[in-house]
Amino acid sequence: MRTSLLLLLALLPCAAQLSQPTPELIRVNPHIYCATGYALGNVIFVLTDRSVVVVDTTEGQDPARAVLNDFRKISALPVSYIIYTHHHGDHIHGAKVFAGPDTKVIAQRNHTEEMRKYMLMLGYNRNLNMAQWAADVPRADRGATLGVDLRHPGASGYIKPQILFDEEYKFTEGGVRFELYHTLGETVDHLMVWLPDFETLLPGDLFYWSFPMLASPGKPDRPVLEWAASLDRMRALHPAYLVGSHSRPLTGRDTIDQALGNYARAIRFVHDETVKRINAGEPLCQIRAEVRLPPDLAAQPYLQPVYGTVEWAVNGVFRQSTGWYDFDPAHLNGGDPALLDRALVEAAGGAGAIVRRAQKAADEGQLQLALEIVEVAGEDAAASRLRQDLLTRLAAQSSNGIARNIYLEAAAEQRKSAP
What we know:
This protein is an alpha/beta fold. It has helices at residues 2-11, 61-71, 89-92, 95-98, 111-120, 122-132, 224-236, 253-279, 284-290, 295-298, 310-321, 337-348, 351-363, 367-375, 381-397, 401-417; strands spanning 24-29, 32-36, 43-47, 52-55, 79-83, 104-108, 163-165, 168-173, 176-182, 191-195, 200-202, 241-242, 250-251. Helix content is 43%, strand content 14%.
């Protein structure tokens, strides 16, 4: 049981995001239903003449049961296949709820290695998910939330895939053709599902209602340009329906083509601008402050920074394109930051001077600067109170759900450890 719990915590995504607050089972067309709002991840049902194929399964067995109970009012057909679009936890941990004795699970071949890597980093990923999904913050206050309680998530419903493929896998079930293609982006094991008989594309996490999370704050690098290339492949299919694993489905060829095209253009723009500025010798802080989407892209509702952000994408591209040395020799063999903080406190005449300077920055509306200054003061009581206030104010200002969660979780941790 403990292994299942740790696995569940470690595999909850950095990826995705964006579900509506109320459950809804959407009839996309006569053969496809999308369950959204039950959990962080959607469940997609494809009806064939003799069975149901399930694409993605949410982050837990409880929300998966709620989804299946509602779907059983529509169809009693058995589930023949489960398809994981990728290995992130909000797509795989409800699988046992949908599976019958003859159900086969399909994934891209890199799925196995990606799962091994997550298992290797169980402790780190658990701590990261506690922060990213604000485990100690009341559900109503979070910027984004899961369909399971991180403190008591229950056992994982994950099933290892029996069918793994490299670049493509095609099969016919109940008279319906399924075409699965390896499409890099959110992860290296990501796949898309094309249903030519219904002109329907299931893009997984390569399109959702936010600027994409090209670089998650605490996760490994993602293949940025490959993500854009995958979107180009999707456009070439000219789908009439787009049913993602987050957010609501889209319909209409022109609408979908424009959305996928703008998504790809936004990704390439941020990548290319960042690389150009790196080559010009600009520091990361300057690039992050100056790279902005062109106005026509920035105005699109599906490119708002509610999950991923341009600034975080810049961080990721910078990290992928450079080394850890920032051309400041003081950082070449940097020492313990705590020693530097203590020296600065001593030079300032005590923690009180540091707190006063941080408070001045806060009063001037420079909340980020104030937070960075007050960090130097360590565990001083006044510093702790100011730090809590700054974190709460930064959370209130943030339109990004993950950033809000991280700030609020840090404030909650500060309250528990305050002197």
